[in-house]
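Write out this protein's structure.
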Amino acid sequence: MSELELEQRTNIKFLVKLGKSGNEVREMLVQVYGDNVMKKTAVYKWVKRFSEERESVTDEGRSGRPATSRTEENIVTVRQIVRENRRLTVRNIAEQVNIDRETVRKILTGDLDMRKVCTKMVPKELTEEQKQRRVTTCQDLL
């Protein structure tokens, strides 16, 4: 949960205690936060919760298994594997690290900011040296 969301929940709680309706709360939040306001359904959900005497603005604990695959250690391992061989598939990387493919895909695209180009994982942005090398190669070909 972001700090901004926590701040908005606190404001919703305050406005509910003042007796404001869901619409009034939403309008006030839009005036203060503009485009960064919580979604309308979330605002109404929290208005309802605080109207029912809820005091905590944080989420309650959830049951189930916590996500443990997308750790800093696994991110470093995936980065190292990709640097050694950029032609590996997501499946191969997942087998080497022993985590599921979707987590590997999220690490590659989200954490390492990479994308697949012709079955080769590459950074999304080229360095100045790589750009210059491409220009030189293209000029040589012309």
